[in-house]
């Protein structure tokens, strides 16, 4: 064999995969050096979207940043909302009412559910499992119906506010959740049957994109990709925020860190998310959903129209923005694919000096060359699917 | 006080390099000079009482008009002790260099490239320091406070 190879004048072939390749989401380019079908080298180029998130935030008031945060990750936007709101509240040193915390937990877990459903569905599709895609997209649509009824929009969803929420639960929400979860669980079982013991799916996923726990930590992996390596790190458990410490849920972990383990971890996390939503709905107390601080949380419209003090507060918060004391905070939440952290610096004015987001998929995408070097060209597809890169977050 | 172990040990080990420490809203912060940054990071990673094995985030803050103008901010997390710490290394505009911490945590690779791209801070010893979001010919560093918000540098299309 070596003799034959010596006589063959082979050269490495360099190909561009993306940015318009369906797998690379239109925002990432892989510069792949191939020897035959084996990947010799891989260079990841992001930056085809470059939203300029931080520059925009630094030129907006604290409240105007809110809609930028949910566009960071369009498959689980409400988690980004919550993370930012928690960070600003930490900076202000305020605590939101109990009911608000439960509602935020519900919003976050529904988003996580939608995120994992999308991820597994797309991964199935890109490996040819079109049925699994259809089933999970149906489930995801049902979850999005819930999110839509919660915040009134379907594409540009935005629910959380600094110091509270946009609105309380809509009517018959619990009933809707029950119906949707029954259906999602049925579809989950179907997809589980379709994929988990599927010979083709296992052959494409098992052993591909594996990484050891030590290496994953060094690369800054968080979320399902880290847990697939056997490290049970979950921000919700390690440093509980909102009311996660009152919830009974498990953190599923894998063993090998390969793509199949990442898939299994995500499948199990969906079940846990549904458990959390059900518990939160059962435990939720009555009461206000917003802090009673008109200098932070906007006053209701009817008060603005009838009371002069409310009108003045309204003017001040809209024109100057809220003014957190000078200082800096870092607040982490568990995003759909890992630790989502907001680092905010305030100088006491109405605009942030620095509004930095630590996106989970940035560290994961950086490790792509490590994950696929020496593997086959076709292995890029499942590996990239399972790290769940989100363009808006990764591109900064 | 369990949380201040990090700051105490850091101040003991590097009395010259640690300019100041503070706690604000539960976040530990150490302000350090940039010369010893790699040693400090190695110490934080390897000391058995600290074990900061995650480099969660690296970014730069531009305090225009202040000297030193830039702060390179590191957010570290220790899985073993479930603790976080923030390191802030001061970098002046006249000498925009700092040692890379890629040898300490490989995760720093892309974060440092991003900081270089957005703020122009040069990380010495970085294996592959080039722009990550913008193209090679892009002039300036857009996240600096003195970079105009609406400035455009189109490669194709109408000129401004």
From TrEMBL, chain B:
Metal-binding: is it a keyword of this entry? no
Keyword annotations from UniProtKB, A to Z: Cell membrane, Membrane, NAD, Quinone, Translocase, Transport, Ubiquinone
Q: Is Translocase among the key words of this record?
A: yes
One GO cellular component assignment for this chain's record is: plasma membrane
Q: From the Swiss-Prot or TrEMBL record, state where the protein is found.
A: Cell membrane
Recorded catalytic reaction(s): these are: a quinone + NADH + 5 H(+)(in) = a quinol + NAD(+) + 4 H(+)(out)
Which ranges carry the NADH:ubiquinone oxidoreductase 30kDa subunit domain?
32-152
Record-listed E.C. numbers:
7.1.1.-
Membrane topology summary: Peripheral membrane protein
Cross-referenced PROSITE patterns, in alphabetical order? Answer: COMPLEX1_30K
Q: How does it assemble?
A: NDH-1 is composed of 14 different subunits. Subunits NuoB, C, D, E, F, and G constitute the peripheral sector of the complex.
Q: Which family does it belong to?
A: Belongs to the complex I 30 kDa subunit family.
Biological role stated in the UniProt entry? NDH-1 shuttles electrons from NADH, via FMN and iron-sulfur (Fe-S) centers, to quinones in the respiratory chain. The immediate electron acceptor for the enzyme in this species is believed to be ubiquinone. Couples the redox reaction to proton translocation (for every two electrons transferred, four hydrogen ions are translocated across the cytoplasmic membrane), and thus conserves the redox energy in a proton gradient.
The identity of this protein, by name, is: NADH-quinone oxidoreductase subunit C
Instruction: Give the classification, highest ranks.
Output: Bacteria, Pseudomonadati, Thermodesulfobacteriota, Syntrophobacteria, Syntrophobacterales
**What is the primary gene name for this protein?**
nuoC
